[in-house]
Design brief:
heterodimer, A: alpha+beta, Nonspecific Lipid-transfer Protein, Chain A, five-stranded mixed sheet, 19 strands, B: mainly beta, 1 helix, 9% helix
Chain lengths: 394, 153
Amino acid sequence: MSEKFGVKVEEIFGTMPERFRPEAAQGVSASYGYDIIGRGKWKLSVKDGAMKVEKTENLSGCVAVTKADPDTFVGVNIGKVDGTQAFTTGKLSVDGDLMALGTTTKMFKKYVPPKKELSTREYVLDMFGTLEKRFQPKAAEGLRMTVAYDIGGSEGGQWTAAIQEGTCKVAEGLSSEPTLKLSLKARDWVDLMLGRVDTMTLLSTARAKFDGDLQVAMKLGEIFAKYTPPGEEVKEEQELLVLKKVISVDQRFATGPVMGKFLKGLKEKKILANKCPKCKRLQLAPREVCAECRVRVEEFVEVGPKGNVRMLEYTYFASPDPLTGRTRETPYGSAYILLDGCKGHEIFAHYIRPDHLDRIQIGWNERKGTIVRPVWSEERSGSLYDIKYFEIDE
Amino acid sequence: MKPGVDTSDSFIVHGKIALPYTYFAGRVGSKFLTTIRDQKKILGIRCNKCKKVYVPPRQTCDVCLEDIRENWVDVKNEGEIKNFTIVRYQDKHLPKKPPYVLALIKLDGADTSLAHVVEGVDFDKVKIGTRVRAVFAKETTNTILDIDHFEPA
């Protein structure tokens, strides 16, 4: 149960077959995985305008796997949580083809939770609780009166609204000399306020009694704005359109021989810089030409792997990682590290192990910063992420 | 490749960046799109100073710099092609499956052109001056594709 929204994760998946729109799935043939933290995994398969959803452990072969906690997943599905925001803040992540996933949103009608009707008692309390808020000072200009509401039955109660000089005070109990007194049963009162029954019907069938100034009764509809049940939004006068999308961009980066050698070095747990034949400075990452002397650089030297931190920064903004398409977890710390064998500006930038962040000291001038060492990934592919992060060398 | 360059270390890195974005159509843009969606009607905005009618509408006249956001006028669902190109490359952001005709269409009653897709016309028959009419989308998306395409009138 996702307590936050009162909807179970299972309800979302369970209603998928009835919410399916075959016309929107024409020509789609793919599987999509959902990994709902702590609740299990589901696989949605779409083929030839038909669909199947099943709870499974095996999500292989899915073009995209969505991972989220139950509250976020339910919230996005019932429209209470903004999907794009959940994605950018990392509460919802997608492994695989985002564009393909986008097509699934069109394939299903939105999930509408079964409406939970308030009890008559709850309605009565909410109606009088919001009465002052619904008061329209302009419509009551110059009016001075008290309206007594005698709502009968065990679900009812007694209230008095005192209106004067453009203000309205609602109190429990009946005023002794009201300008107008309304007497009716709680159920009829609720029906009247919700527009299910009109005043004339109630009066003619003697289910309501109005005592006092009936002119005032006629004005009540203007003096108080129409009651709307909690959760039902008031329609805006103009519909404003907002488009939210996640676009994915295919990228190809050709390393060339020099960057290629550097990246392949990482695969073998080596950090390679190259050395300018003229000025002898190191370039890290290596470049084909010395940026200062403009001569071709051929000689490679291995540096590190340890080094000291020269600068550290925290990032709180969750941006997408161009290499994986995934949103980075925040906050994260990145450091400029002067690896052994390097000097001056020959620094190397990488992440710092999150739980070591608050113990990192930065160095300046001759003073050394905290010594760190790389933690290599188990599976290395010739990427900067072959180093997971740097951790304190201890 | 230059002879003598050792490329044995070179390889290709595939990236897959994802870019979430939010686009707000604005009051003017929202009314333009919701009218197309709900009433199958295309609106323009007239500058009362220079009398120019903008489609798509805008809130400021770019010649007079007048605030024109209230001056809505109806234009016809028909017009003529002022210029066009044929999109032949495939990319996932494109509105239609290529090849298709992308045209600048000046609707009757408007002074500016609207970029949209023209269907149902041979590529070698389409020319500047061809009369076209809007075909509205059955399934709406709150975008300019609520006009699904234009077809020869």
